[in-house]
Write a structure and sequence with these properties.
Blueprint: H1 16-31, H2 35-47, H3 52-61, H4 64-71, H5 77-85, E1 89-91, E2 94-96, E3 108-111, H6 117-124, E4 135-138, E5 142-145, H7 160-167
Helix pairs in contact: 1-7, 2-3, 3-7, 4-5
């Protein structure tokens, strides 16, 4: 129940900064984003109209690798990123191999014709997953973005206000 070592039993005070940093690190790891990328997303979210924390999560949700993950074509964000990097998807009919591309309303993400048995198996199993409201998923391995993601569409618990407080110091 305590940390190892001589001072493990000491009760450490959880500071506000510690909570903010942990929340940021948790969010970065969940989406697989590096520090510099995350800072750029924060700046972009802060400049947009509306609540900065929700804007930040909306930007992260709109990444192509995250959309592939939400489509159910990958078991993790890392796997989705790798599939996108290897060029297995098209965005509006064009090859897309950059995981950080932000999708917009009306964009169509589709699986490229491939000989890979793994991709074929993922497309066949795609209908078993529950898709977020902002994605319209077809059984043929494609999805259309029908709306912008909202805060309640994110299934992982984040306290985006702590992240905004950390960066706004």
């Amino acid at each position: 129940s305590t940390s190892p070592g001589q001072h493990g039993a000491a009760n450490k005070k959880v500071r506000e900064y510690d909570m903010q940093l942990r929340e940021k690190q948790k969010t970065k790891r969940y989406y697989g984003v590096l520090e510099k990328q995350f800072l750029n997303y924060y700046k972009k979210a802060d400049n947009q109209e509306g609540i900065a924390g929700e804007n930040l999560l909306r930007l992260l949700e709109r990444r192509l690798d995250n959309v592939v993950f939400r489509m159910g074509l990958a078991t993790s964000h890392k796997e989705a990123r790798q599939l996108v990097l290897h060029g297995h998807f098209t965005l509006n009919g064009h090859k897309a191999n950059i995981p950080s591309i932000l999708v917009k309303v009306g964009d169509v993400i589709a699986v490229k014709e491939t000989e890979s048995p793994k991709i074929k198996a993922l497309v066949e199993a795609m209908g078993d997953n529950v898709a977020p409201k902002w994605l319209e998923i077809n059984k043929n391995g494609s999805a259309k973005v029908v709306a912008m993601p909202e805060r309640d569409d994110i299934d992982f618990e984040f306290n985006e206000q702590l992240i905004i407080e950390l960066y706004s110091k």
